[in-house]
Design brief:
By secondary structure, this protein is an all-alpha fold. The chain is built from 18 helices and no strands.
């Protein structure tokens, strides 16, 4: 009986990670290398944007000034604008020159170095901190688009949701590793009587180290399958290349509609990523260690959501699956709005995690389904444009609402629900089967 039970478990594992889900010539170790990049870069969003540095920037770097939250959201917006301008051109160059992997390495190096730079900024050193925030977030976002462009090369069309879910779920464990190491150090430092200005910089060094080491398997195992195009795209300015990319994408109306949908619902997600810790500390009185523990739990829920939902997505369809997650986000916003203490907010945070992993993974899979094979990096560059535009609109809206209402974070979080409802409405006009057929043609 023990042997039979072991074989059953092994069969389940093989079924979950079946070779048949991958394109011919793709080995599982290469998918592992691809997934390791999600593992590597998740620490940046978890520790820098969500759990630690955002609240540290508002409270210590900007010294809790009246405009501190708006300043933080403005820096995130500026980095997003830079990505919007340069990523479509980088994507077109990567497709023409078969350079996705080389550019990914460049962006990884930039993000790691500038994350170390975040730790070098002290109280009141706004200029240095602002530069490091903009550079690190720009490099992170470009790397996120480039790694996504490898997905259709690895997974079969009917398995994009599952394979994307593998990577996204695995990525949250990387976020938990960076956050767990940081939390352990913060608790030790607080017990020793150290201040935030002493222990937060060390968490930046931990995050940068995890990013650099965990990304190594990606560059060792992941192959560049694109071929140098015989007629590469002509040299153009970033704005001219962006215009050309949009003109090309207009031939794929379902892809274009999904970009509009993505701008809307990703704006809401950007608020949660960039300002959840600020909301918890400013509205509910969370302390630094409590916030980090909360985000750790969110990462566990996100990993479960991304992995399990990928199988549900491939079964019911990308569009229907995404609609479920968007309604889940609306419920989460309402729970956070009415929460008067930590207990209900913890429930909202778990729901946010489940929706975060599933909606992020689902969005990447849908782009993979709707993008033409010869222009993967370019179309993922347009997706990066959409998500970065969302990262401008969402946090800036939140920051402006808090500014106009004398710091009312509850009204700001409630306004975020509009983004998810609008995304759900736009998604109704996206026909994934029709769009995928156009991409194959």
């Amino acid at each position: 009986m023990p042997v039979e039970g072991h074989n059953d478990q092994r069969g389940v594992a093989v079924g979950l990670f079946a070779q048949e889900l991958l394109n011919p010539g793709v080995k599982k170790r290469e998918v592992f290398g691809w997934s390791m990049y999600d593992f590597a870069n998740s620490g940046y969003t978890t520790v820098v944007l969500t759990a630690v540095y955002n609240a540290y920037f508002v409270g210590v770097i900007a010294q809790s000034s009246a405009s501190a939250t708006l300043l933080w959201t403005s820096l995130i917006a500026l980095s997003s604008v830079l990505v919007m301008l340069i990523m479509p051109a980088l994507g077109a160059y990567a497709d023409a020159r078969a350079a996705k992997k080389r550019l990914l390495m460049l962006m990884t190096t930039g993000c790691v170095i500038s994350t170390i730079g975040l730790g070098l900024a002290g109280q009141g050193q706004l200029a240095w901190a602002a530069l490091a925030v903009v550079v690190s977030n720009t490099c992170y976002a470009c790397g996120e688009a480039l790694i996504g462009a490898f997905l259709p090369e690895l997974a079969r069309r009917d398995s994009l949701g599952r394979v994307s879910g593998w990577g996204w779920a695995f990525g949250y464990f990387g976020g938990m590793l960076a956050l767990g190491l940081s939390l352990a150090y913060v608790l030790h430092a607080q017990a020793a009587g150290m201040s935030a200005s002493e222990f937060v910089p060390v968490t930046m060094y931990i995050t940068a180290g995890v990013y650099a080491l965990a990304a190594l398997p990606t560059f060792l195992l992941l192959r560049e399958r694109a071929q140098v195009q015989t007629k590469p795209a002509p040299a153009q300015s970033a704005l001219a290349r962006l215009k050309a990319s949009w003109q090309r994408a207009r031939r794929y109306p379902d892809f274009m509609r999904f970009l509009v949908c993505g701008v809307s619902y990703q704006a809401g997600i950007a608020v949660v990523i960039a300002l959840a810790a600020v909301y918890a500390e400013q509205t509910l009185g969370f302390k630094q260690a409590q916030t980090m523990a909360l985000v750790f739990l969110v990462n566990i829920a996100s990993a479960v959501g991304a992995f399990v939902f990928g199988y549900f997505e491939d079964r019911v369809g990308h569009s229907r699956a995404l609609k479920v997650t968007l309604l889940g986000w609306v419920v989460m916003i309402l729970l956070a709005f009415v929460a008067q203490g930590p207990a209900l907010f913890w429930v909202a945070a778990v729901l946010a995690g489940l929706c975060m992993g599933s909606s992020q993974s689902c969005g990447r899979a849908m782009v993979g389904a709707l993008a033409p094979q010869a222009s993967l990096a370019e179309f993922f560059g347009l997706w990066a444009f959409a998500t970065r535009l969302a990262a401008v609109i969402g946090p800036l809206t939140y920051g402006l609402v808090t500014w106009l209402t004398a710091g009312n974070h509850r009204l700001a979080i409630l306004s975020t629900g509009v983004f998810f409802l609008l995304g759900w409405w736009v998604l109704a006009g996206v026909n994934v089967q029709r769009g995928a057929a156009a991409a194959r043609a």
